[in-house]
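lol ok so funny story. i was supposed to be doing the assay writeup but got distracted and ended up predicting the structure for this chain instead. priorities right. anyway since i did it might as well share w the group, maybe its usefull for someone
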Amino acid sequence: MYAFSSSVSVHDASVYGTSNGFSGRAWPGDGFTADAAVEYSLTRSWVLALDVVYQHNDSTHLSGTMPPSGATPAGESIDAQSGSSWSIGFAPAIEYNWSPRMGTLLGVRMIEIGRNTTATVTPAIAVNMVF
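and the output, tada:
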């Protein structure tokens, strides 16, 4: 999957780390994700599953100004790059299917490898229904 991003107007406090009074634009980087999955049926009802996910995001560019203050009468100009990021995540799970159309999954997603990425462990629970 490839995601294209366009620029966005940013004012005041934002997810880009700006504070109140900021005015400018952000150009989020494009993103790429690849996911490989494998399943192994132990029995008719029990299945082991594993997803491996690679994600890369290009650098985000932020440009704008802070309003004038006592320390900076002309206002402060801001021009910053976040740097690119990448990560590799693993999601092992076990499935139990109590019928051909109904089942449940219990697993966890772990992201431990990467650059400019926070390590995370996220539980996953799902109910599968096929109609």
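The chain has one domain: 2-129. The mean pLDDT is 93.
back to the writeup now i swear
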